[in-house]
Amino acid sequence: MLILKSYLLRNFEQLFILIILLSVSSIVYFIPHKLAFLSFFFIPILLAASYLGTKQAILGALFSIIMVSVYAFYFPQKFYVNNAELDLFARIMVWGGFLILSGSVVGYLNKQLKEKLLEASKMSSELNENTELLNKTTSELIEFTNEFDKKVAERTCNLEKSKREIEVHKHKIEDALYSTMDAAVVKLMIEKRLRTEKRRISILFCDLVSFTLYSEKHHAEVVITDLNNYLASMETILLLYNAHIDKYVGDGIMAEFGAPIDYERHALLSVMAALKMQEQLNHDNFPWKMRIGIATGEPIIGLIGHKRQSYTALGDVVNLASRIENLCIPGEVTIDKDTYEEIKDYFDVESIYISNNKNQMSQALAKEIEAELILWQQEKSVKQASILAMLYEQGGQYNKAKDFYTYALEFDPTNSDIKIKFAELALKTEHIKEVPIKGRIKPSHLYKVIAVKNPLYDQEIIPKSLFNLYFNEIERLIKYPEDIILPVECLDASIGHSRIVGFLAYIIADKLNLPDQDKKDILEAGYLADIGKSIIPHHLLNRKGSLNKDEFTEIFKHPREGLRKLKSMGYQNISMLEIIECHHEYFDGSGYPKGLSGSNIPLGARIVAVTEAYTSLTSRRPYRERWESHAAISELKKHAENGKFDPELMQLFEHILFNNASDIEFKTLLKKVMN
């Protein structure tokens, strides 16, 4: 059967011609209706197109047409079906045309099919080859991947182990460095930015009085435990005020302010830290008294040592600070003249008088002064002030003597005797206040720091009538959070700024008859509004000139930084926090951080914005003098007209400060602000 099929396929062309001849002959001779069977010829033509191709199919069709036409020519009567001869040939032509067309189309389609099949067969063959290659490659890749993963896993394990060992080693090194060096010093060392130089800084020395005697009377573990507790308390304060703790010398501490990071207000930071250290020592009830000495100057600062290095300060100012600490009275803070010049506007300070001929106050003299003070409280007069001045002078307490001579002159400014005695005392103290310092040729002026000045007493900023009316009320309401505010305010010498802002903001809130809780929130927000300034680089806080765009971007961050810090400290009052966040929003919408405008800005934030701007202008800054209060208000009113502040609120604040509005005008303003 297969042989026959193969033979027929090989000789199909000859067989095709034979079929056509037989078909034509049979149809012509044996079929009576020739035209009806002409469509029979489609069968061999289609077969030819399918098996032989288009060319052979067309030739077969032409051959069939010729054969049928020849028979029709010689035997036309056999094709007639009641039609004319011309019609007969027309039919044959139409039939022949369709026959050729059928052969052509089928042949073309067959050719395309064969080409596609051939191409598909070729592609299938290539695909099979590629599949085999892919399978082989995949197997090799899987084998390689497994081996690679194994090696990677081993290498990763080794790297992680090495990393852990490095991290452990790194932490040990850092712990060792941080235990012996300041974190800022370590960071600058790693970044290779630590320099040896001469720089103006403040040096603090402190030590405990009678600690040696205490250590001899107690067990070693008790002494070390108490000493470490004391050092922990002092260290916390020193670091809070950005000190570099140079070294511990037994119970003594040496620290630098302004190095290695060059804080410009190093003198303020050092003195404030010293006062807080004395306060903390008393608060913790340690069984000792502490002496603190501070000097300001230009020592050499840098790393010293070979294998064991230490960042320290060297020079005359270091020796001076140490000598001052030795001369300091236990429980006090003593500073030199250079430090005094930088901090005198912010602290109550007294000159220290030391003389070889200084009288020691006897017990009898002390009792006499005590009796005269009782009389002074009963009747303040020129005579009583003069008596106390002379007694204090006799006892060597020259500052108090000066105070009472001043009181006497206030009562009787024309009293020539008192003027002469006061002048003589001034000349006397001018000579003896030069304190001899061991190791120095020239004696030094020394000063005792008493306390931080209360800025609320400044009548140039707060009228006396407002102070008297509100001081006690506000002091009872909220304790001023100076422990978290003062370290920030020392950075730009704005000590007391927040206290005034809160005080004045509370007064405005009270005049507006706001609820008690709202007034309390505004007061607290005024106190804490600028706590976020710690994020601003300190050189920008003290910049004398204008700031560029990038520097302003740093400034704009501080309201939200304040929120972050306060929340981390546990403050949860949403209303108060919102005031702090929005107190730099401008009335026209050009402020920050949200760009709020008009009444969309919380009323408390608008109040704090006004009082903060006023306080900034009327307070002294290292880079400019203070403004007079009327001039400051005039300037701020211009800003209000330009859209920075609430204009009605600014006008109300002016009337509160200067009491220059009638009751009707004042009530009208209150309504405008509240609406």
Molecular structure report:
With 675 residues, the chain is an alpha+beta fold. It has 4 domains: 127 residues; 158 residues, Alpha-Beta Plaits (2-Layer Sandwich); 70 residues, Serine Threonine Protein Phosphatase 5, Tetratricopeptide repeat; 219 residues, Hypothetical protein af1432. Helices cover 63% and strands 9% of the residues. It has 27 helices and 11 strands. The strands form 2 sheets. Strands 2, 3, 4, 5, 8, 9, 10 and 11 form an 8-stranded mixed β-sheet that branches. Strands 1-6-7 form a 3-stranded antiparallel β-sheet. β6 and β7 form a beta hairpin. α22 runs antiparallel to α23 and α24 packs across α25. It is elongated, with a radius of gyration of 53 Å. The model has no long low-confidence stretch (mean pLDDT 83). Keywords: Membrane, TPR repeat, Transmembrane, Transmembrane helix. InterPro entries: A/G_cyclase, HD/PDEase_dom, HD_GYP_dom, Nucleotide_cyclase, TPR-like_helical_dom_sf, TPR_rpt. This is HD domain-containing protein. It holds the Pfam family Guanylate_cyc. It comes from Pseudoalteromonas denitrificans DSM 6059.
- Count of separate structural domains: 4
Topology, number of strands = 11
Q: Which quaternary structure do these chains form?
A: single chain
Strand content: 5-15%
Distance between the termini: 111 Å
- Mean pLDDT equals 83
Quick one: CATH superfamily of the largest domain?
Hypothetical protein af1432
Radius of gyration: 53 Å
Task: Fill in the CATH topology of the largest domain.
Answer: Hypothetical protein af1432
Q: Name the shape in a single word.
A: elongated
